[in-house]
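Q: Please design a sequence for this.
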């Protein structure tokens, strides 16, 4: 339980860390010393492609077991759609087969596009996430809050599902076609709250509809036009649409509901003010480009920016901002923490694997996409069955790929500064001498020179003569561990450096190990 508590505490602390406004840096000091984590298996993509028959079987079996009219899916690795597949029919009446160009309504998977648009406006200096939403949607000025001391809803409250609105599925789904004026009229009649703003996560479609209206207020364009021009087109998502009537009949997947032993076609809702929470219509071919862009934000590095928003902005979208009330929970691997980021779900399991994802469900449609940033892999799948999100199939595919392809997270190479400090430390062992140029000012204040000298002598007396010095294993750019192999025992050496321009050793721990 103590480990679980520490695990949860670390997550909560990380979730409270503020993220600054993301602007490109004019100059970066020390870029020559920065090394990005890398995948060490040169055959990882080939191994994933070799697992394609198993992936196909998982999705096809899932579609059959859940009675989907059709399912379409894709696996994205290192910026490319490496495998895709389809099963079933997009139109049961015409027997039109589905393919990776067939367009499905992706429902709540739309929310991350709305979030990205808000952050793009923020990056351009046109809004602040701490701005009251009423600054841009004046109807919010007159709403009645749950308590007299509640703070006014901010844009960040809306992004993180913590505005205090009640969970509104499936009511929100049926508002999709509402006009902008109907949204404003809804707000103007006053709203009900389940919590005071900024305190609790509760899923809100209304909150993202309001974000869509904020995009319109600031940009002077409908949120559909703004997202299309500033996100979809730059990513070459040229087939994606908001309004289903603009799509040729042979390109659109119709939605269905299984009722009384037969398929009933669902009426497709027109796009409207609530589309910012769930209106986008995409193909697997198009959406895979969006997945690839999200994966491309990792790891932080010095490459030129090429996306519609900065990589740091995408990584900001991937951070945990609100813990889900059902967290912690468990899966097959043990305890896990779940919560909400910006338009995306976040979770970390007992293996340390972080998943960023979002499902979607509307009358006639179900969908889900998920990425594992440190593994460089993502999957996406669509169905045309009512609320038929293939989340379990996606989860099984990822686990299968990790196991069959033996996928490992990126490994961080040791920075030059760590290597140099390691060599400097070894020049000071096994005898111990004072070296002012190596140790920070706190070093001998924390433990006096004579005490350190005696401790080192005692350690090497037990370990014996040095026979080999291992490579350093970096924890980050300025902290790492290496092992000194000796005749009798080995010594594990941990050290961490200061934040000064010329980092010095501030802490050193030497431990005897078998």
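A: Design:
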């Amino acid at each position: 339980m103590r480990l679980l508590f520490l695990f949860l505490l670390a997550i909560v602390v990380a979730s409270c860390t503020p993220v600054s406004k993301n602007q490109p840096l004019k100059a970066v000091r020390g870029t020559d010393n920065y090394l990005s984590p890398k995948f060490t298996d040169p055959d990882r993509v080939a191994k994933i492609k070799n697992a394609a028959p198993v992936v196909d079987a998982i999705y096809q079996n899932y579609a059959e077991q859940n009675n989907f009219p059709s399912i379409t899916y894709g696996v994205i690795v290192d910026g490319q759609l490496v495998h895709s597949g389809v099963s079933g029919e997009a139109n049961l009446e015409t027997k039109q087969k589905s393919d990776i160009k067939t367009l499905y309504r992706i429902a709540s998977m739309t929310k991350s596009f709305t979030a990205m648009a808000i952050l793009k406006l923020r990056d351009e200096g046109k809004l602040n996430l701490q701005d009251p939403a009423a600054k841009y949607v004046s109807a919010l000025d007159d709403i009645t809050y749950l308590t007299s001391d509640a703070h006014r809803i901010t844009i960040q409250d809306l992004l993180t599902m913590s505005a205090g609105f009640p969970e509104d599925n499936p009511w929100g789904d049926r508002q999709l076609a509402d006009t902008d004026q109907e949204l404003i009229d809804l707000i103007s009649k006053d709203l009900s709250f389940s919590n005071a703003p900024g305190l609790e996560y509760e899923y809100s479609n209304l909150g993202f509809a309001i974000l869509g209206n904020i995009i319109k207020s600031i940009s002077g364009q409908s949120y559909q036009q703004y997202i299309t021009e500033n996100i979809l087109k730059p990513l070459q998502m040229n087939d994606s649409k908001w309004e289903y009537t603009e799509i040729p009949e042979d390109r659109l997947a119709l939605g269905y509901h299984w009722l009384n032993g037969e398929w009933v076609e669902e009426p497709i809702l027109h796009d409207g003010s609530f589309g910012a929470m769930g209106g986008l219509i995409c193909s697997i071919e198009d959406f895979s480009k969006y997945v690839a862009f999200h994966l491309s934000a990792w790891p932080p590095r010095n490459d030129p920016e090429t996306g519609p928003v900065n990589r740091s902005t995408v990584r900001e979208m991937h951070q945990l901002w609100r813990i889900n009330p059902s967290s912690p929970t468990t899966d097959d691997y043990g305890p896990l923490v779940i919560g909400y980021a910006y338009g995306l779900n976040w979770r970390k399991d007992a293996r340390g694997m972080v998943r960023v994802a979002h499902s979607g469900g509307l009358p006639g449609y179900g969908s889900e996409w998920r990425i594992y940033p440190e593994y460089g892999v993502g999957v996406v799948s669509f169905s045309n069955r009512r609320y038929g999100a293939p989340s379990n199939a996606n989860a099984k595919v990822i686990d299968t790929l990790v196991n069959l392809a033996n996928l490992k997270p990126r490994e961080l190479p040791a920075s030059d500064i760590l290597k140099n400090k390691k060599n400097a430390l070894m020049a000071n062992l096994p005898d111990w001498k004072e070296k002012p140029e190596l140790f920070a000012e706190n070093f001998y204040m924390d433990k006096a020179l004579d005490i350190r000298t005696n401790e080192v002598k005692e350690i090497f007396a037990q370990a014996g003569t040095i026979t080999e010095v291992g490579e350093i294993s970096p924890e980050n750019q300025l902290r790492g561990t290496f092992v000194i192999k000796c005749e009798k025992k080995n010594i594990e050496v941990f050290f961490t450096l200061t934040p000064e321009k010329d980092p010095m050793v501030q802490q050193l721990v030497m431990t005897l190990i078998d």
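Q: Thanks. Anything notable?
A: The CA atoms of residues 52 and 83 lie 7 Å apart. The chain has 15 helices and 19 strands.
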